[in-house]
Write a structure and sequence with these properties.
heterodimer, A: 553 residues, mainly beta, 24-stranded antiparallel beta barrel, two-stranded antiparallel ribbon, 5% helix, globular, B: 165 residues, alpha/beta, Glutaredoxin, seven-stranded mixed sheet
């Protein structure tokens, strides 16, 4: 609190200087977001058994600059009277969430305070903000970037990671270099290479067989031509104790590794992309004790599930989550990581062809398969060896086809089919395996220039778990500003009579320019809610929610 | 309570002063689709308006909007307008960007804002999000897309391009 007072005082002193004051105020950009909910008791989804029926998350971001070289950013967050259900309890009351001061010129970029950074594809380090998931793992410290020339750049950082309004006890240090070997005379080819290092020091846990510091090294190359591209990344992680049943043991300390390969072929009207990834004991937290926390706090590196991110609600019931960790739950449930691949094909059927019709037709095919690593596991002695190639138990697979067709200037259709296999035992460490088929048809009809109607019909069929679901959504855009919707998800074949619940929602939105207001009343399905490949469990709830997003620029 | 008053005052002062002022596109490093770092300023259209459309491969309304613009873009280009489609896909989905735009035959310039630095610097709090600039100066901002809204954007472009000529 004391620190906060000093901070506000400094700001006031600063703003009393009139010439700076006017410059800063003239250059000010701000944004405000507010998400609130009032939860009610519901005979179907259960009583609301927590404190504070009314909950609200609020974010105010302010940015400004003096000249072209000095930038400031301040974010104030308020969770009053408390944060929305299933946000980390570290998000409470009002306070300064992030603050930074930045100096930039042609060669240098120096940031002091909270910063967001990513090395390569983020597998070794990523700090970012995702308000939907309650993630803000910005690092507070020093971030220095130096561009030697157009070919070579260097990034270094040091600091502690934010968790709620507090900071992790562990320290992170990082270094990344990028070399652009592309030939300037031939713009058809690019060739970029990068080397990264990340060290995490945590003295909160100690053992005789491992160090406080865990180091990660990564090398990557990226090649592109007009019709072909390919990239590879290799990571090694030094010895780190494996968490078992909430504790660390001197005799269970392992190295980690990651291998990533991606390649694609592109030509006008067709695109093919293939990815292979293998992860072994790769999770890294800024505090070892944060391992596996359900709020995704203190994550240092980003290891998302490499599967298609679905838009339709029934396709988001059995969502794969990447399995980068070592986990010895019982002799029949041992995981050491994941290995698998994903394929995407996009194809455009030409206008005025037999299948293409007047407007052409878009096809998108996606397939992925993910498995446990192949190896020898010794449950009693907590020991294992893995093979680079080969597959263990299958975690997940899916194949989907999406067809987008415009029939006329008024009528559009999307047809979507998805076949999924989800190994609930291995992914969630529960019971069962689920094979399902999902079918969706979406129709949009334009009534006139700004009025349109969208109908979405979905069905999920499975003989496993909670059996069949159906869903529909109807959206009516009655002007460029106002939109209304009604939707329902219904688990009509749930074996338990009282779980045959209609998860209905009604609501609307008003948006004009950069202001957007939404209101929704309905039931939230419990279980995994996933955005950007990261998931968290949310309890079932019923209530009224509303949001405001706006910015002043 | 005292502290809250100070906070409130600061916020109100900030807000009332800021609304009227004109703002520019910030200078920030962003990646091309091939992975090269370039400065955001170098992506501006030198002879007319620039439209920045923030999208992602998983965002259905974003793709609907860009598809709708793509279908009529030959007409738009007559007014010297340039469209830059800024993908906010992160490591999970960014590999899908290139095959998707090729599969759809979009001929927009595409940038990759993988850790959302460009998006954050413009205070964008949701996609789809459209910004139009005249030179460096931002003259239009809009969040969201509903079918038919591309016509409103076209009218805006038409009006402001005529003013220019």
């Amino acid at each position: 609190m004391k620190r906060e007072k000093i901070f506000y005082l400094l700001i006031l002193i600063f703003f009393n200087n009139s010439s700076l004051n006017s410059q800063i105020l003239n250059n000010l950009r701000s944004s405000y977001e507010s998400y609130s909910a009032y939860y009610i008791d519901d005979s179907k989804t259960g009583d609301f058994n927590y404190e504070d029926r009314f909950r609200s998350n609020n974010y105010l971001n302010l940015k400004s600059n003096i000249g072209a070289s000095w930038n400031f950013e301040l974010q104030i967050e308020s969770y009053l009277p408390s944060s929305l259900l299933n946000y980390s309890p570290d998000f409470k009351n009002t306070g300064i969430s992030t603050f930074n001061l930045e100096y930039i010129n042609d060669k240098i970029n120096l940031k002091l305070g909270n910063f967001y950074e990513q090395f390569g594809s983020g597998m070794i380090l990523r700090s970012w903000e995702d308000k939907d998931l309650g993630i803000n793992n910005s690092i507070r410290g020093l971030n220095f970037k130096y561009r030697l020339n157009d070919k070579i750049s260097l990034t270094s950082l040091f600091g502690q990671q934010k968790k709620g309004f507090k900071y992790s006890k562990g320290f992170i240090v990082g270094l990344d270099t990028e070399f652009d070997f592309s030939n300037e005379t031939n713009e058809n080819y690019t060739f970029i290479a990068g080397l990264s290092f990340v060290g995490r020091n945590d003295d909160q846990t100690s053992g005789t067989t491992y160090h406080n510091t865990t180091n990660l090294y990564s090398a990557r190359i990226d090649f592109s031509s007009l019709s072909f591209y390919s990239n590879i990344e290799i990571i090694n992680k030094s010895k780190d104790p494996v968490m078992q049943f909430g504790d660390f043991y001197d005799d269970f300390v392992e190295e980690g590794a990651a291998f990533f390969f991606n390649s694609g072929f592109i030509k006008n009207g067709i695109g093919v992309d293939f990815t292979f990834r293998r992860l072994e004991n790769m999770a890294l937290f800024s505090e070892r004790n944060a391992f596996g926390n359900s709020y995704n706090q203190s994550i240092v590196n980003y290891l998302p599930a490499l599967t298609k991110q679905h838009d339709y609600s029934l396709a988001n019931i059995y969502v794969y989550q990447s399995q980068p960790n070592v986990s010895f739950v019982d002799p029949n449930l041992i995981k050491t990581g994941e290995t698998g691949m994903q394929l995407d094909i996009y194809y455009f059927l030409k206008e005025k062809s037999f299948f293409g019709g007047q407007y052409g037709m878009n096809l998108a095919l996606n397939a992925s398969i993910w498995n446990n690593l192949d190896g020898n596991f010794d449950f009693v002695n907590k020991n294992y060896t893995t093979n680079f190639f080969g597959n263990g138990e299958k975690y997940f697979s899916e194949i989907s086809l999406e067809i987008r067709k415009k029939w006329s200037s008024k009528l559009d259709n999307i047809i979507f089919y998805l076949n999924q296999f989800y190994n609930k035992k291995y992914i969630e460490e529960k019971f069962g395996k689920i094979n399902s088929n999902i079918f969706v048809i979406e129709t949009t009809y334009k009534l006139n220039k700004n009025k349109s109607l969208k109908l979405e019909l979905q069905h999920l069929s499975t003989k496993d778990d909670n059996k069949n679901w159906s869903a529909f959504g109807l959206e009516y855009n009655l002007s460029s500003a106002i939109s209304l919707y009604v939707s329902d998800l219904y688990n009509y074949q749930n074996p338990k009579q009282d779980k045959k619940i209609h998860y209905y929602n009604v609501g609307g939105s008003y948006s004009k320019g950069i202001n957007r207001y939404t209101v929704n009343y309905g039931r939230q399905r419990g279980g995994l809610v996933c955005t950007g490949g990261i998931c968290r469990y949310v309890p079932e709830s019923t209530g009224l929610s509303f949001s405001i997003t706006t910015s002043f620029f | 309570m005292n502290l809250n008053h100070i906070k409130l005052t600061i916020i109100i002062v900030f807000f009332t002063q800021s609304i009227l002022s004109q703002k520019n596109i910030p200078s920030i490093y962003i990646k091309t689709i091939e992975g090269k770092s370039i400065n955001s300023i170098s992506t501006l259209n030198k002879n007319g308006l620039t439209i920045y459309s923030f999208w992602a491969t998983w965002c259905v309304p974003c793709i609907n909007e860009l598809d709708a613009i793509h279908n009529e873009f030959d007409k738009w280009k007559e007014h010297n307008v340039k469209l830059v489609a800024v993908s906010t896909d992160d490591a999970r989905t960014k590999r899908r960007v290139r095959p998707l735009i090729m599969g759809k035959k979009w001929n927009f310039e595409v940038l990759i804002d993988e850790n959302q630095n460009f998006k954050r610097s413009l205070n964008i709090n949701g996609i789809p999000y459209t910004i139009v600039t005249d030179g460096k100066k931002i003259i239009y901002r809009k969040i969201g897309y509903k079918p038919g809204e591309e016509k409103d954007l076209y009218e805006f472009v038409l009006k402001n391009s005529i003013d220019k000529n």
